[in-house]
Write a structure and sequence with these properties.
The chain has about 650 residues and is of the alpha/beta class. It contains 20 helices and 11 strands. The chain has 2 domains: about 375 residues, ABC transporter transmembrane region fold; about 230 residues, Rossmann fold (3-Layer(aba) Sandwich), CATH 3.40.50.300. The structure holds adenosine-5'-triphosphate (ATP). InterPro entries: AAA+_ATPase, ABC1_TM_dom, ABC1_TM_sf, ABC_transporter-like_ATP-bd, ABC_transporter-like_CS, P-loop_NTPase, Type_1_exporter.
Length: about 650
């Protein structure tokens, strides 16, 4: 009869265990090994080379170090009540899970006691079965509660983090964007916030739940059969040791595969974003060859990883089946001695499974948490960035109008012995003692060889950067005493050589920078910029979409939209970089006409590339090697 009892127990045990045992098996092994899975997401930066990829992994420790609990607390504060409710529900789900083996044991034992199928007999099973059903139902309820609550908390956390990060990025100075590539910043905003959110969610839900379940189940197992538990607990360290060795090998391989995939992505990213250049130079085949090489390397690593994961899984299954066999043999002996009932053995098996699965689930969570903390650290590091030139609108003491009225012919802007090196290249002096004056109402043409520092002068005037030495004066006062926001909004209108349009309508693009402008004002600016006619010729007129980066309009049209945009602000100082890019002669004539019109009656600094512009200017400044040539007192001379 003991054999029959064991047989019954085994039958039920196998039913309970069959599917979950296998899913738990890999996890049991990973108890020692930590995270073992193919990392499909590339590292945060798009690494073009192996060196880039290893630099990415080198920065991981720094980034984890930047993780701030205080900042996390402040981000979670508005949802604290939801978070607490989720924590309570998660712990409740775990504790209910620990109750399940008890319920199963009672059901099995009452089934084993059945002598017939009459109603009175069945009633003895109904009680334990309904109690177990109640536990299942309650567990489902709290599981629903904690998963949905944590989902909301996680999404709110990500949205708050993204908002804060975007606000921080938008307030950084231009030097910041010299240091950080846009792909990197986008990766912070999307991938890193996503990783951080999911790590947070799994740490709270899975971490809390599995830790509670592990401790609860082990306690239950030891209480049920200390002898069987000692047997089972001795077996675990062996499994952990093997898992540890294999797991760390696979982790290293997984890291290398991810870095290689990132390198392949970087090649694709560059080719796809520079498609015009690729096509213009006929480099399609070369780019494909480069990409194929990188992809093949990544695939080779991924194949090795797949083999390793297969081996890992197979050994895990073996280890888990070993546990089942051990518990069954030991349990059979206990049943034979009358120390356990069949129901208790079944419950014990379920308890072992719960303990193993829960403990094993904790293991990948460490890796997940480290990944999340690293991603969070990278985001938090950016949140700490402080711009050197702060747009601090309304700060008392900052001027928001000219320090003194400047009449025509008087100095509006003056550079006094300005020296400058870009923060990203502090050793390369770009401006080396530049002095020049821009009288109000005059057109000053700045010319000189490429790289002479002409655009750099305009960048100082918009306060994208501050001089390293010397001063920029506006109406006799240092430009630093003016509100930088006012300088860019109201004082300076900038028309760059290659203007960027936003993916919006022409009207929205012209209005950019002065959103309150009326349609009539937008049209007036477009007329001044010689743009009204071609805009009206489009079927949707001002509501025509210019496409991504303005690709749906021609180079010359883009230039004139940009001129209209600058004129709409009616700036006191117009800075324009003459377009030398590929405009056909008709477009060039139209843009030139628009610029001549725009310059009428304004103070203008024009970076001149054409003789006609220089001829029509009031003053000409010739620059070379970061200096105003012909230096001395004749830095500016009448043509
Ligand atoms: N953001 C930057 N960071 C570091 N160096 C820069 C940066 N921008 C420009 N430079 C360097 O500063 C020098 C002057 O550049 P600038 O653009 O002012 O020259 P330019 O006279 O306007 O040339 P071009 O006529 O070709 O536009 C160049 O050597 C350039 O490489």
């Amino acid at each position: 009869s003991a054999a029959a009892v064991v047989g019954g127990g085994v039958g039920l045990g196998c039913y309970v265990a069959s599917s979950d045992w296998l899913s738990a098996s890999a996890s049991l092994f990973s108890l020692g090994g930590g995270v073992v899975r193919a990392e499909t997401a590339p590292p945060a930066e798009l690494a073009r080379t192996d060196e880039d990829a290893s630099a990415v992994s080198r920065s991981v420790d720094d980034d984890v170090g930047k993780f701030s609990w205080r900042l996390l607390g402040s981000l979670l504060l508005p949802d604290l009540h939801l978070l607490l409710a989720a924590v309570v529900a998660s712990v409740a789900a775990a504790l209910l899970n620990v109750q399940i083996p008890v319920g199963i044991s009672q059901v099995v034992d009452s089934v084993m006691r059945l002598q017939g199928a009459d109603w009175d007999q069945l009633k003895t099973v109904m009680g334990p079965a309904l109690r177990l059903l109640g536990v299942y139902a309650a567990q489902s309820g709290v599981t629903f509660a904690y998963i949905s609550l944590l989902g909301c908390v996680g999404e709110n956390l990500a949205a708050r983090l993204r908002r804060r990060l975007m606000a921080t990025l938008l307030t950084q100075d231009v030097a910041f964007f010299d240091r950080h590539r846009s792909a990197e910043l986008l990766s912070r905003l999307s991938g890193d916030v996503q990783d951080f959110k999911s790590a947070f969610k799994s740490a709270v839900s899975q971490g809390l739940r599995n830790a509670t379940q592990t401790v609860g189940s082990l306690g239950y197992l030891v209480a049920m059969s200390p002898r069987l538990s000692a047997f089972f607990l001795l077996y675990i360290p062996l499994v952990v040791a093997v898992g540890l060795g294999l797991g760390s090998m696979l982790r290293a391989l997984s890291k290398r595969a991810a870095a290689q995939q990132a390198a392949a992505n970087a090649v694709a990213h560059e080719a796809l974003t520079q498609m015009r250049s690729v096509k213009a130079f006929g480099m399609e085949a070369e780019e494909l060859r480069l990409y194929e090489g990188q992809v093949e390397e990544a695939a080779a690593l991924a194949r090795r990883l797949a083999l390793g994961i297969g081996l890992f899984q197979a050994l895990s299954n073996l280890a888990v089946n070993g546990v089942v066999l051990t518990v069954l043999c030991g349990g059979g002996v206990c049943i034979g001695r009358g120390e356990l009932t069949a129901g208790e053995l079944t419950a014990y098996l379920v308890g072992v499974q719960t303990a193993m699965r829960s403990a094993a689930n904790l293991s990948p969570l460490f890796g997940h948490a480290i990944k999340g903390a690293t991603a969070g650290g990278r985001v938090f590091r950016l949140l700490d960035s402080r711009p050197c030139i702060e747009i601090d609108r309304g700060r008392p003491g900052l001027l928001t109008e000219l320090a003194a009225p400047v009449s025509a012919g008087q100095d509006l802007v003056r550079l006094e012995n300005v020296r400058f090196a870009y923060p990203g290249r502090p050793d390369a002096v770009v401006l080396d003692g530049v002095s020049l004056t821009v009288p109000s109402g005059c057109v000053v043409a700045v010319c000189g060889r490429s790289g002479a520092g002409k655009s750099t002068v305009t960048q100082l005037l918009t306060r994208f950067y501050d001089p390293t030495d010397g001063r920029v004066l506006l109406a006799g006062r240092d430009l630093r005493s003016y509100d930088p926001g006012w300088v860019r909004d109201r004082l300076v209108g900038l028309i760059p050589q290659e203007p960027a349009l936003f993916c919006a309508t022409i009207r929205e693009n012209i209005r950019y920078g002065r959103p309150e402008a009326t349609d009539a004002e937008v049209e007036a600016a477009a007329r001044l910029a010689q743009a009204h006619k071609f805009i009206k010729a489009f079927p949707r007129g001002y509501d025509t979409h210019v496409g991504e980066r303005g690709l749906a309009v021609s180079g010359g049209q883009k230039q004139r939209i940009a001129i209209a945009r600058a004129l709409l602000k009616d700036p006191k100082l117009l800075i324009l970089d003459e377009a030398t890019s590929a405009l056909d002669s008709e477009s060039e004539r139209l843009v030139q006409a628009a610029l001549q019109q725009a310059m009428q009656g304004r103070t203008v600094i024009v970076i001149a590339h054409r003789l006609s512009t220089i001829e029509s200017a009031d003053y000409v400044v010739v620059m070379g090697n970061g200096r105003v040539l012909e230096a001395s007192a004749l830095a500016i001379f009448r043509v």
